[in-house]
Amino acid sequence: MKYLEKTALSRIFIIIFHLVGFIGFSLPQYHDFFLSFVPFHLLLMAGILLANQKEFNKNFWSALVFVYVGGFLVEVVGVSSGAVFGVYHYGETLGIKLANVPLLIGVNWFIIVFCVGAVLKKYLKHQRTLKAAIGAVILVVLDFLIEPVAVRFDYWSWENSEIPLQNFIAWFFVAFVLLRVYYELEFRKSNPVALTLIICQFLFFLGLNLTVI
Questions:
Q1: Residues 56-102: pLDDT tens digits?
Q2: Could you list the residue ranges that cross the membrane (predicted)?
Q3: How far apart are CA 180 and CA 192, in angstroms?
Q4: Contact between 119 and 82 (Cβ < 8 Å)
Q5: Could you tell me whether strands 97-98 and 156-158 are parallel, antiparallel, or unpaired per DSSP bridges?
């Protein structure tokens, strides 16, 4: 019973925070206020995801560290060289930076990889490579929705204000590698809030694309 109550409350929190954030981003007079809470929102979503994780063994922590560090380092290489995603740099919205990359970027990779990974884990049994590829396609679609919003609200910006095709190709390969390792490591991947969280992310960015951008 307590488990069900925690899951239900977690889902309610996820929905409410995304809905409130959507309203705040949609109202120009509140942009600065809500943008200041973006780092806290990401940390809260990561915390809710962790709170509903069913198993914390060595492989789970190995997957988490690999996704966080791998996602962060590829962004460091990308920002410094322009050779991964294209030429871009981060603004101030995502908070404290190391090597010109917000530390929260790794948290964002953790959230989306673990959400998509958990949702797909019960399908295509033992076909880890195919699941990783499907998950990577889903995350490319999510990035397609994120990009205009991110540029509009100073998450990051692109050279000549153009989002290159290279970015989406790189997103696929980075997401694929992160998901493939996630599936290779054995731990209980079920997470009862993963579907709610990834749907809310899709709806949040889709809504802003339709109403603000």
A1: 999 999 999 999 999 999 999 999 999 999 999 999 999 999 999 99
A2: 9-27, 33-51, 63-89, 101-120, 132-151, 163-181, 193-212
A3: 21
A4: no
A5: unpaired
